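One such given next:

>
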Amino acid sequence: MSPHNTFAINVNTECPEANREVVTHEVERIEGVGESENRLFKGFWTCLPIDIRFILDDKSAPHWKARIFSEDAILISIQAWPCSHLNDRDQFANHVGPNVVEALDDAHHDCAGDAADVKEARKWKHLFLKFPEGQSLSSKVVNKDAGEDEKLKLELIPVKAMHKGLQTACTSLFAAWKVARTDIKARKKGKLEQKSDKSDAALLLEQLGAGFNGMKIEQTAAFVVVHPTRLQLTISSC
């Protein structure tokens, strides 16, 4: 990361659209995983539009990724260049003046002339999403693959735009992530299970269950025999 491609965003949780490149919504009932299974968390859902061509060009690179950076901040790393600015120069040339095309060409030549590490760094943009103070964010309670870095689980959401004014449908793709708040108590999911006050023997008998249906139970009687020096209890079957 370098200063020219790293940006801090103080997340406005009341206005989802007021957060630079991303849109962040407050959501409820995010399902927990692992030790937090059957719990429902409050948290945030963040998304931004992406270009599918980045994935098709390189299927191994993590083009959009997010993780917990600190207790109240998320770090999102995304593609810095719009794919069209890198690959659609000739299509731009059909609609803009020569000076604009020259600007695109100059940028391409500058990138091509950079050292490999600088070129790689320029591919990425890093966004620090700083949430209001006092909020504690967690990924591991809602993402089983969060790991030590507390990675957020990536979602890809295709949206097909159809309109009577369009000759063909246009499909947009969004990257999105959920994060949970742990400073707010999670709700428990599902029907409340009543705790049993039955003894271990009673519970074991219930587990045996149907095996006792129709079984004849032999009754026993107890007789007390009095002895001059001791009391003896004798059990005999009827």
User: Anything to note?
Assistant: DSSP finds six helices and twelve strands in the chain. Residues 3-80+123-188 form one domain. The first strand starts at residue 6 and ends at 10. The chain has a mean pLDDT of 88.
